[in-house]
UniProtKB/TrEMBL annotation:
Pfam families: 7tm_4. The gene is LOC136996473. This is Olfactory receptor 4E1-like. It is found in: Membrane. It comes from Apteryx mantelli (North Island brown kiwi). Its main location: membrane. Residues 41-287 form the G-protein coupled receptors family 1 profile domain. The chain crosses the membrane at residues 25-47, 102-126, 147-168, 205-225, 237-259, 271-289. It is a multi-pass membrane protein. It comes from the Eukaryota. Keywords: G-protein coupled receptor, Membrane, Receptor, Transducer, Transmembrane, Transmembrane helix.
Amino acid sequence: MDPENHTRVSEFFLSGLTTNHAVELALFTFFVVVYVLIILGNILIIFTIAHDQHLHSPMYFFLSNLSLIDVCHSSVVMPKMLADFLVDKKSISSEGCEAQMFFLHLFACTEIFLLTIMAYDCYLAICNPMHYGTIMSWKMCLQLATVMWMRGLMHSVSLTALTLNLPYCGPSAIDNFFCNVPLIIKLACTNIHVLEMLLVATSGLISVVCFLVLVTSYVVILVSLRKHLSEGQHKALSTCAAHLTVVTLFLGHCIFIYLRPAKSLAADKVVSVFFTAITPLMNPIIYTFRNEDMKNALRKLCRRQIDSQDK
């Protein structure tokens, strides 16, 4: 098809999660609650870490970064998804679609690098505690944070630029509730085989490699320390177990979506819901209820608020 003879698509139409209006209203209520909990839960973690001196350590510095990313990540998709539950015509402008893709890949890629850094931090805390403070200094933490955000930005810019350079002249229907690169490039009126392979080679394989490295590292830690654990190492292992849960939920989506050709599957929407809503909700729950230091800090914060109100 010659794109020169066709009008460029100015908006895309989203299929949403369902076409049943009653179900849409129920989902609207459910996801409003989920979104509010994501915002409040992750902001509470950031606030607690910032105001408790005992949590001013590398592990909690990276945890606050994770909470910030989760707030931003869910906010890219969920407000639009909630608005679409209330309307019949679910459309998004081409500029809005481009912005969604850019920020989704920025926060998703940054989170992949952050989870890898958190695994390294966990490894040092358990396997090399004597040199942990020297290796994981605040200067190193800031450098790692800068690198992960820059790498996420580079990945997002390059992938979005490649997608934008494709000609779109119809059709314009996206079989999901947000703009995602695999589904968008499928709508291009040109051959996308090379771009599909590039997408698999970058996002797909990066996700697989990171997932295998992270799982292997945790298996090594668990096997090497299973018989002689100090109290501090028990706490570190609890944190690692929570971290591994987050990694599985998050990278599982990336592997499922990007390690295959660009086509729609029945499970895509379910997996996408976990990626954009459930995982950002689970992170504060997992890290709070599995972490004694966080629970103690939250109790102190609540007591401080109650005492200030009594005065």
